[in-house]
Amino acid sequence: AGLNLVGLRRRGHSAEEVRDLKDCYRAVYMTSRKGSMQEKAAVVHAKTEVGKKFLAFFDEEKRGFIHGRHS
C-alpha cells in the first residue's frame, strides 16, 4: 500500500507536489518514531498545498488510522 503515483500524475500534479506527498507519507507512515498519526503529522513541514492538505487530514479526522508496517 502507498500513494497512487500514476493516478496523481494523471490528475496533473506536478513532480514537486508528488515528491512532497511522498515525503509527507513517509514521515507519517514509514517512520519508527513513536506516537499517533496526528503527532507524526504535526512535526512534518509540507512544501506544497497538496502536502499541507494531506497533513491537515490527520489533524482534522477523529477516527483512527491504519498503521504502516515496521520492518
Short overview:
The chain has helices at 5-10, 15-29, 37-42, 49-60. The chain is mainly alpha-helical and 71 residues long. The radius of gyration is 12 Å and the shape is globular.
Helicity level, as a percent range? 40-55%
Content of β-strand = under 5%
What overall form do the CA principal axes indicate? globular
How many alpha or pi helices? 4
Termini Cα gap: 14 Å
Q: Radius of gyration, rounded?
A: 12 Å
Helix and strand pattern:
HHHH
Tell me the number of strands. Answer: 0
Uncertain ranges: none
Overall pLDDT metric: 84
Taking the sheet with the most strands, its summary is: none
Describe it for me?
It is a single chain. This protein is mainly alpha-helical and 71 residues long. Helices cover 55% and strands 0% of the residues. The chain has four helices and no strands. It has helices spanning 5-10, 15-29, 37-42, 49-60. Helix 2 (15-29) runs parallel beside helix 4 (49-60). The radius of gyration is 12 Å and the shape is globular. The protein starts with a helix and ends in an 11-residue tail after the last helix.
Provide the fold topology.
Elements: H1 5-10, H2 15-29, H3 37-42, H4 49-60
Helix pairs in contact: 2-4
Task: Provide keyphrases for this structure.
single chain, 71 residues, mainly alpha, 4 helices, 55% helix, 0% strand, globular
